[in-house]
Amino acid sequence: MAAKRKKTSTKRRKTTARKCSPSASADVEQEMHEFKRGEAHSGRSGKLVKNRKQAVAIGLSKARRKGKRVPAAPSKRKRS
């Protein structure tokens, strides 16, 4: 009688792709650098950026305009 082999579970690590490309991260990093030095300005109005989240959003927006891989901006909620 042949001995039965014990089944060993092989755990596979789930790999996930980067959400942002490294060059897009560099664009955000550059925008944050300007923000920290007090040189970051928002779009058309040209007002000084005073919020960290706003500075990150501007950096991501610039990366999207350049065509880099960045997750889509959250869609705006429609009112009914």
Summarize the structure.
The protein is mainly alpha-helical. The protein is built from 2 helices and no strands.
**Can you tell me the residue ranges where pLDDT is under 50 for at least 5 consecutive residues?**
none
- The share of residues in extended strands comes to under 5%
Shape field = elongated
Largest sheet: none
| CA-CA gap between termini | 73 Å
What percent of the residues sit in helical stretches (DSSP H or I)? Answer: 25-40%
Task: Give the number of helices.
Answer: 2
> Mean of the pLDDT scores?
87
The overall strand count is 0
Radius of gyration, CA atoms, in whole angstroms: 22 Å
- The secondary-structure class comes to mainly alpha
**Helices and strands, in N-to-C order?**
HH
Describe the structure.
The chain has 2 helices and no strands. The protein is mostly helical and 80 residues long. The chain has a domain at 22-66. Helix 1 packs across helix 2 (52-66). The longest helix has 16 residues, at 22-37. The termini are far apart.
Task: Give me the secondary-structure topology.
Blueprint (H helix, E strand, L loop, with lengths): L21 H16 L14 H15 L14
Helix pairs in contact: 1-2
Notable characteristics:
80 residues; elongated; 39% helix
